[in-house]
Amino acid sequence: MPWIELSLDTTHEAIDWVRTLLAETLEIGDINIVEYTGLNQPHPVEQHPQWTFTIYLYLPLDAQSRTRVEKIVNLLSPLHRTGLTTTIQTTVVEDKPTDANGLNSRIHRIGKRFVVLTPDASYQSQTADEVTLRLKTTLCFGSGLHPATILSLQLLEQYIIPTMNVLDLGSGSGILSVAMAKLGANVLALDNDRIAVVATQDAVRCNGVEQQVRVMKGSLGSGSEMGHWMGGDIIDNVPSIKDTKTFDLIVANILARMHIALADDFQRALRQTDAHGGLLITAGFTADHEENVDKALTKAGFEIVDCKRLDEWVAFAHRLVL
Fold first, then answer.
1. Domain for residue 158, yes or no?
2. For 130, 285, 294, 300, which has the most beta carbons within 10 A of its beta carbon?
3. Is 311 found in the same domain as 169?
4. Backbone CA torsion sign across 241, 244, 248, 254
5. Whole-model pTM?
6. How far is residue 153 from each of residues 110, 134, 177, 239, 299, measured CA to CA in Å?
7. Residue 98, in any domain of the structure
8. What pLDDT, on a 0 to 100 scale, did the predictor assign at position 43?
């Protein structure tokens, strides 16, 4: 059966943006991500020192192909205009290639302990304290390849303590919820996007942490009034939790404007005990937003205790001030 192959090169941080945008195109059944080699683009003008991955998409060649391709090109054109991806190349192929050389079969290490794998990848742990995170290739944020996710995992590795009661706000693929559960925490995973909720539920089952993670469609406090975490549309009502002094730690890998708007909700939802000190981990923003995020959190009663950076991306750890 012939297929239309669409391909584009991306920067490090663009991978999850592409996947999030493509979640709107339900016709896509196959996505393959490989390390950038420079062979995809025929024109030197598009060569870029920071291209890191090439994405391949496959659509059946039929009467609807042209409409589907145009929809995908239009969805991703903003990323190309801002220099995050190349233009989309299209070609017709007789067969879809296997994923033998793709990232879906590749070991991806984060921090000192985390290893991201696909569900069926064969892997033998190298150390006794290694934590494996098995994830399907989904069209939602949280592949483990985006700098914001990497920084979040590095901070969680440092601050999660077993038996903590934690909130993953904007759970996406479920990678952070699974990581916290495997570090011993009890997790409430919230997202206001139905695709993300399904992906988180699938990740929880795949990693065998159902007893430690509860997945809900919803938001925290005023977040339900502010739209989709990633700027998309919400087509139905999203419930809001207004828990007070419930969580020992909250992690939120979402846009800067959401952190700023939810600063007081974060403060109300966190609790302080002798064992756990009301920690908030925020990520999903770049250095040009960090001052405003820190200012809003400081005003709400937090003090910064840690900060990690990767390229222009920033992640904070704040603690409630006694």
1. yes
2. 285
3. yes
4. positive
5. 0.77
6. 7, 14, 10, 27, 26
7. no
8. 46
